[in-house]
Amino acid sequence: DGGITQSPKYLFRKEGQNVTLSCEQNLNHDAMYWYRQDPGQGLRLIYYSQIVNDFQKGDIAEGYSVSREKKESFPLTVTSAQKNPTAFYLCATSQGFSYEQYFGPGTRLTVT
Amino acid sequence: AQSVAQPEDQVNVAEGNPLTVKCTYSVSGNPYLFWYVQYPNRGLQFLLKYITGDNLVKGSYGFEAEFNKSQTSFHLKKPSALVSDSALYFCAVIYNTDKLIFGTGTRLQVFP
Predict the structure, then answer these.
(1) How does DSSP assign A100-112, residue by residue?
(2) pLDDT per residue over B66-107, tens digit each?
(3) How would you classify the pairing of strands A54-57 and A43-51?
(4) A35 neighbourhood in chain B, CB within 8 Å
(5) Each residue of A67-97: pLDDT tens digit?
(6) d(CA B47, CA B26)
(7) Phi, psi for residue B61 in degrees, rounded to 5
């Protein structure tokens, strides 16, 4: 997990509220990713960014938004439009898209 | 459809015995193949990868994997399992240089 910080570790929100998850890296990696992990479903890609000021939708982008204003930072906003936001969220980085990824410790979001 | 399969939800093995965690894929083009390990409530850690070259790849913690093009498989192996190897293992595939799929994960349980 070294070099990638996700905060907070646990996050609780009421339904209807937007919430932003933080991801910061000091690995100088170009690519950054957000995944959602649910039991029995593995990892599903939400958004990824290969370069500053550019990002692409993954498989389950609906109800989420991201920004990449700095190389070190790739925050994820879970909007009220996300139907089932309770999950474990993982941020990852890599030197480029075809390289191995390094993961942060994750944020467990609970929405009630 | 492009896919990655980890056919076993759980693999049980006695400490000291060899272990195998299976991964098969169905993607277009030449795949890049990865194995990751996840300990409880943590992010994933990279174990090993196959890009090109020798079909047998050695990685961290004594793990290795064999790329078999004809069987479209990339099984993870270790000659002698440790209790500390107990974790969740994910296979991942990158294809067409910008598409990424993770398997659903296999839980490895090593019994003393």
Answers:
(1) PPEE---EEEEE-
(2) 999 999 999 999 999 999 999 999 999 998 877 889 999 999
(3) antiparallel
(4) 102
(5) 999 999 999 999 988 889 999 999 999 998 8
(6) 21
(7) 60, 25
Cis peptide before A8 (omega within 30 of 0): yes
Whole-angstrom distance, CA of residue A45 vs CA of residue A68: 16
Q: What is the mean pLDDT of residues B22-27?
A: 96
Chain B residues with CB under 8 Å of A40 CB are 9, 104
Q: What is the mean pLDDT of residues B54-60?
A: 93
Nearest Cα neighbor of A71 from A89, A49, A92 is A49
Beta bridge partners of A109: A11, A87
| Rg of chain A (C-alpha set) | 13
Contacts of B100 in chain A (CB under 8 A): 45, 48, 97
Place of tokens 């609970």: A110
Maximum separation of any 2 CA atoms in chain A, in Å: 38
| CB-defined contacts A:B, below 8 A | 51
**What tokens were used for B59?**
């990685």
- Whether B94 and A97 lie within 8 Å, measured CB to CB: yes
| Residue A101 neighbours by CB distance under 10 Å | 26
Residue ranges of alpha helices (H) inside chain A are none
Query: Please, which residues bridge with residue B50 across strands?
Result: B33
The residue type found at A107 is T
